[in-house]
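FORM 7B - TANDEM STRUCTURE REPORT

SECTION 1: FIRST PROTEIN
SEQUENCE AND TOKENS:
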Amino acid sequence: MIAGLDQPTAGSVELDRRGIAFVFQDAHLLPWRTVLDNAALPLELMGVSRPRRLEAARGALQQIGLADAMQRYPAQLSGGMKMRVSLARALVTEPKLLLLDEPFAALDEITRQKLDEQLRALWAAHGMTVLFVTHSTAEATFLADRAVILTRRPARIVEDFRIDLPGERTAALRADARFAAVTRLIYNALERGGA
């Protein structure tokens, strides 16, 4: 509903949809386009000139650590690299709101944790609002400043709480007792919600 892909049965969602970018579970890259051209696609669709959109795409790809892969094609990328291209494609429009629907779910744990760290750093650098859907309690704990736990369909809010962890989060935080305590709170809320 926030993305405008579905309508609420009651109530409303009000926001400026011009500043929204999406990252889905699958990267959905165009196989015939290079990484650079895939990252530049939203700007192309907006009518931005080729030099400007490629410059913006190069910048986004550098931010996510893919400066050396710009001329590769999706078939030449790992799963983690594909998701980073998808993230760059979302960031290239400089969104005010970034919606992510389980983007790292299919990745191995180490790649997933590195992308979580990178996403948290990008959020801090850009200051945008990020709405991240995940089924991973540890991922929610690491990424979020606020967690909203939902039941199964029809979704109802079970818990809505602030995550009291340091703003700057590194891999070492995952071994901290505070991290384990918050992860347990999220897990307990999921159980109460029938997950």
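SECTION 2: SECOND PROTEIN
SEQUENCE AND TOKENS:
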Amino acid sequence: MIRTAIMTDVKNLSPEITLHIAQSLNLPLHSLTAVIGLLNEGGTVPFIARYRKEATGNLDEVRIRDIEDKLGYFRELVSRRETILGSILEQGKLSDELKARIEATLDKAELEDLYLPYRPKRRTKATIARDRGLQPLADYLWAQQPGEQPVTGYAATFINPEKEVASLEDALEGARHIVAENISENADLRKALRQVMFDEGMIVSKKTLDAVDEQESFACITTTASR
């Protein structure tokens, strides 16, 4: 019942997604909607390109295939979005702000990043640390604000052998696990890091030492390097 309440018609995508596809493919909206309608009716790409030119504005097979690919991508995104919204709603953690962000994203990776903190997962070191009462210490470390006592003094107050926090280092290590997990599950940070990798990342390939290169795949690289 919960998930049914937030379901949408995946086959008929929202106007926002349709407009996004038109802009990303640089297509007239009327041509795009015509192709979507013909594909929904079961038309194949070759058939539409050959026999429905007047409806599509003379789009060729390549352009129609691009539309078909985009439709597949966004229908998968919408279906996944519904699953994610239902899961978070069932957990009682779906705020209006989070719901708006999930519904607004048009990127699968960003959608999964937003879901990551709410995805059911196995017990982690951070989960264990939270169970041991170390969340306040993690929040203190993350805030990076000067307190009335040094961090070691504050961390010492969390030492509790009954909770398996036997030392100062145990307390600090557990808090660091929590901070690390919070960072790894931050959707905005993950998006920024992904963009940095796309903009500045480099892929390097080299022959393994003493490996036999029977097809001489790396001959050009080796020659260039020796120069």
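SECTION 3: OBSERVATIONS ON SECOND PROTEIN
The first helix runs from residue 2 to 6.
Residues 1-9, 222-227 have pLDDT under 50 and may be disordered.

SECTION 4: SIGNATURE
Preparer initials: ____
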